[in-house]
Design a protein that fits this description.
The protein has one domain (1-145): E3 ubiquitin-protein ligase SopA (Pectate Lyase C-like), CATH 2.160.20.80. 0% of the residues lie in helices and 5% in strands. It is built from no helices and 2 strands. Strands 1-2 form a two-stranded antiparallel ribbon. The mean pLDDT is 89.
Length: 145
């Protein structure tokens, strides 16, 4: 499977098989990658550069995104149930309609992120920076201790 840059079509990384379930993509530069609808269940994406990537409709259930750079990333409609986003950079990310049920967002930077219609039930937002974030009709039963 090839992961391509969405504008130029340049191949960013090639992984064996046709799925990314449990894939180890730690520290990989996936800036601007086209990952629409990708199945990244339990993938290791720690410290991965996903700036400007298109992850619309992707399944990142249980994915490890600690320290990942997700600035300006399009995650509309993605499933991040139980994902670990501790310390992730989500500045200006489009998280409309995302399922973040039970996700760990401790210390995440969500400045100006769009969280409209996002499900945050059971999510941990302790220490997260939510300055300028949009929460319209979002389900926000969360932990902020």
């Amino acid at each position: 499977m090839q992961i391509k840059q969405k504008v130029t079509g340049k191949v960013l990384v090639e992984v064996s098989g046709d799925t990314l379930v449990g894939a180890n993509l730690t520290g990989v530069n996936l800036t601007g990658a086209d990952l629409r609808g990708a199945n990244l269940i339990d993938a290791d994406l720690r410290d991965t550069d996903l700036r400007g990537a298109d992850l619309r409709g992707g399944n990142l259930t249980g994915a490890d995104l600690r320290g990942a750079d997700l600035r300006d990333t399009d995650l509309r409609g993605a499933n991040l149930t139980g994902a670990n986003l501790t310390g992730a950079d989500l500045i200006d990310a489009d998280l409309r309609g995302v399922n973040l049920t039970g996700a760990d967002l401790r210390g995440a930077d969500l400045i100006d992120a769009d969280l409209r219609d996002t499900d945050l039930r059971g999510a941990n937002l302790r220490g997260a920076n939510l300055r300028g974030a949009t929460f319209i009709i979002a389900n926000v039963t969360v932990t902020i201790k």
